[in-house]
Amino acid sequence: MSRTLRLLPVAVVVALAVSLSLPTGRAQAAEGPAWGLVASTCSESSVAANAAVGVAVVEVEAYWDRFMPTGAGAVNADYVADLRARVTRCLDAGLRVVIGPGTQYPPAWVRALPGSKLLDQRGKSPTNGALDTVFSASVRAAQADYLKRLVAALPASRIEAFRVGTSAEGEMGFPGPNEAGDGFLQSWWAFSPAAQQGTGLAPGTPRSPMPGWIPGQRTWQGQTVSAAAARNWFLWYSRSLAYAVKGQADALRAAGFAGQIHLPSPGKGVLPADLTTATTALLNGTGDRDGSLGRGLNYVDQFAVLAGAVPRLVVDITGVDDASAVLARAQSPAQDACRTGDATAVATAGTPVAAWSSMRFTRAWASRAGLPAVGENPGPPAAQTGGTSSSDSLAEQVRRAPDYARGCGLTTLLVAFEWALDDPDYGVTRDDYRAAVLG
């Protein structure tokens, strides 16, 4: 998506201990979440406007293609100086800052690296421009070098968090349904030479457990493929995302950053019952209710894997009052808001998790993994951000999101986006946000 419209959603600062029982509504701790904005410019005028309404946290975007536009090691000194000055301005004003590193905006020279292309089972690359940040050693090495330089260029010891992601939106996941642009609704983005044969494979990432097997095929190398083998293949596929996330976190740590690592987690991901249905059908498309299988979003497993591998990891729920919340709110009884006991109920047979909002489901699995959570709303539906035609308006998102954040025990809520609150066309202002926070 366009960087002028889909700026990275990020959130910050969290408690280190999280109970398996979630607070309900205003039973949240008295101090409540920290309130902030996504995609702050940190201009003098924005700093003043944010301070006037009590904004405490801002997310600031960096862009890889602006930072290193011409080649490895070639840093744009003017851009770096401007970025550092803006971040420092916000910090000096007492705002807490999260950095969206903009790894989803790779420069042209990275796109030209050998093995940089994501390939699906039909040999197609995604139309959204996503590169292979998961399996490609060359892309991962360039990315790690950029993150090292970004940390060195900023006052990193004062920064709350960096976020990590693998998708063209800067979130966790492979490209989504029909992003190969060839009319097929499902792609599996693990058919490069690196993923299949291990040629140019990123360190710490295993190659396919069944090289050459395409999901849906009933045999592999002359043998019948079982449901268990299909599940094992999917776990390899989805865990590859976790290994890529860990690689970015490791690069940040190696560069000296000691703060939090935020993992933007879109949607609900794969439901356990749907995974059983899908793998019984050998991943032929059955049971994939929203494209989460092809995107590799298996939070049930990934959060647990990452919790033990990435210290100070924080789940960023990017769908606070998204379209799924609108649907869940219409259920009887309503299934949108988090409730005490969700972290137990979500793993209990018979719980109607398919009716839950993505926010509620994701929060429950983060809690089970012992991971704290922050969140953000999807943004204006008409602006081609995370919002859709089924989402609440931005004004309604701003009204509802603070109570959702309290009820789900989020320690930070960031509203997307600063620029939208400055645009009268969206019908909502910083004062509206403040009023919603104060309740």
Automatic annotation (TrEMBL):
Highest taxon listed in the record's lineage: Bacteria
Ranges where the record places region Disordered: 371-398
Keywords: Signal
Residue ranges that the Swiss-Prot or TrEMBL entry lists as coiled coil: none
Keyword Membrane belongs to the record: no
UniProt xrefs under InterPro entries: GH
Biased segments, Polar residues type: 385-394
Protein name: Glycoside hydrolase family 42 N-terminal domain-containing protein
Protein source organism: Actinomycetospora atypica
